[in-house]
Design goal:
Elements (H helix, E strand, L loop, with lengths): L1 H5 L9 H10 L1 H24 L6 H25 L5 E4 L10 E4 L1 H22 L3 H23 L4 H33 L2 H24 L9 H29 L1 H6 L12
Antiparallel strand pairs: 1-2
The structure holds retinal.
C-alpha cells in the first residue's frame, strides 16, 4: 500500500465508472439530475427564441446573463450525472454518518460559483445598481459558494465543516443585504421596482432554502438522505433558475424601452462604446 501511495495510487478510491453506476442505481437520485439536464436544454432553446429581437445593449446584457444560467446548469448537471464531479467522502468523527462514505455532489457547489453571479448580475442591471454594489454582491456570492464547497469537502474535522458553513452564511448575509436594501431602493429610482420586487422575493425565499437543505442533508446533520436532498436542490434550481430567467426575459422583451431609458448607477451601456 505504501508503494502504491508513493506512485500516487490510492487503492480504495472508487473509479468514476463505479461512481457513475452508484448514481444510476439510485433511481431517485439519477432522476433529480436528468430532469434538470432536460429542463436546462429546453430553457436554452426557449430563451434564445425570446431574446431574438432585443436591440438595446442593456437589454442584451441582461439577456446574456440570464442565458448563462441554463448554460452553466446543463454543464453542472452533466458533470454530476457522469460521476465526474461526485465523490464518496468519509465523514469525520462527530458526524451522524462518521466513518461512512457519503456521496458528495461537490460539483453543485462549484458551479453555483458560476451560475449565481449571473443571476445577481441580471438582477443588479435590472435594479440600476452602481458598480460598487454589483461588485460587492458578486464577490460575496462567489465567496459564499466557494466556502460552501469547502464545507462539503472538509473531511478532517466535523467542527471545521460547520465553521466553513458559518463563513459561507456570512457572505450570504452580504448578498441578502444588497438585494433587500440597496437594490430594492435603486429599482424604485430606475422605475423597475415592480418586476424587481417579484424577482427579489422569488430569489430571497428560494436561496434561503439552500443552506437549510445543506444543514439537513447528508453533508450536514444527515436528517435527509442523499437522493431527497438532491431532489430538494433540483426543485429549487428549477424555480430559482429557469422560472426566474423566464420571468426576467419575458419582462425585458416586453419592456425594452424602459430598460433602454432607465436610470442606472452603471451609466449608459452605449451602442457605440
Ligand atoms: C450553502 C452552504 C453553506 C451556507 C450557505 C449556502 C448557500 C447556498 C446558496 C445557493 C444558491 C444556489 C442557487 C443555484 C442556482 O444555480 C453553500 C448551501 C449560505 C444560497 C440559486
Amino acid at each position: 500500500a505504501v508503494d502504491l501511495l508513493t506512485q500516487g495510487i490510492v487503492p480504495l478510491e472508487m473509479t468514476q465508472t463505479e461512481v457513475f453506476q452508484a448514481i444510476q442505481d439510485n433511481g431517485l437520485l439519477a432522476s433529480s439530475l436528468w430532469i434538470n439536464i432536460a429542463l436546462a436544454g429546453l430553457s436554452i432553446l426557449l430563451f434564445l427564441y425570446m431574446g431574438r429581437n432585443l436591440e438595446d445593449p442593456r437589454a442584451q446584457l441582461i439577456f446574456v446573463a440570464a442565458m448563462m444560467v441554463p448554460l452553466v446548469s446543463i454543464s453542472s448537471y452533466t458533470g454530476l450525472v457522469s460521476g465526474l464531479t461526485v465523490s464518496f467522502l468519509e465523514m469525520p468523527a462527530g458526524h451522524a454518518l462518521a466513518g461512512q462514505e457519503v456521496l458528495t455532489p461537490w460539483g453543485r457547489y462549484l458551479t453555483w460559483a458560476l451560475s449565481t453571479p449571473m443571476i445577481l448580475i441580471a438582477l443588479g442591471l435590472l435594479a440600476g445598481s452602481n458598480m460598487t454594489k454589483l461588485f460587492t454582491a458578486v464577490t460575496a456570492d462567489i465567496g459564499m459558494c466557494v466556502t460552501g464547497l469547502a464545507a462539503a469537502l472538509t473531511t478532517s474535522s466535523y467542527l471545521l465543516r460547520w465553521v466553513w458553513y458559518v463563513i459561507s452564511c456570512a457572505f450570504f448575509v452580504v448578498v441578502l443585504y444588497i438585494l433587500l436594501a440597496e437594490w430594492a431602493e435603486d429599482a424604485e429610482i430606475a422605475g423597475t421596482a415592480e418586476i424587481f420586487n417579484t424577482l427579489k422575493v422569488l430569489t430571497v425565499v428560494l436561496w434561503l432554502g439552500y443552506p437549510i437543505f445543506w444543514a439537513l442533508g447528508a453533508e450536514g446533520l444527515a436528517v435527509l438522505d442523499v437522493a431527497i436532498t438532491s431532489w430538494a436542490y433540483s426543485g429549487m434550481d428549477i424555480i430559482a433558475k429557469y422560472l426566474f430567467a423566464f420571468l426576467l426575459l419575458r419582462w425585458v422583451a416586453d419592456n425594452e424601452r424602459t430598460v433602454a431609458d432607465m436610470a442606472s448607477g452603471l451609466g449608459s451601456v452605449s451602442r457605440s462604446g
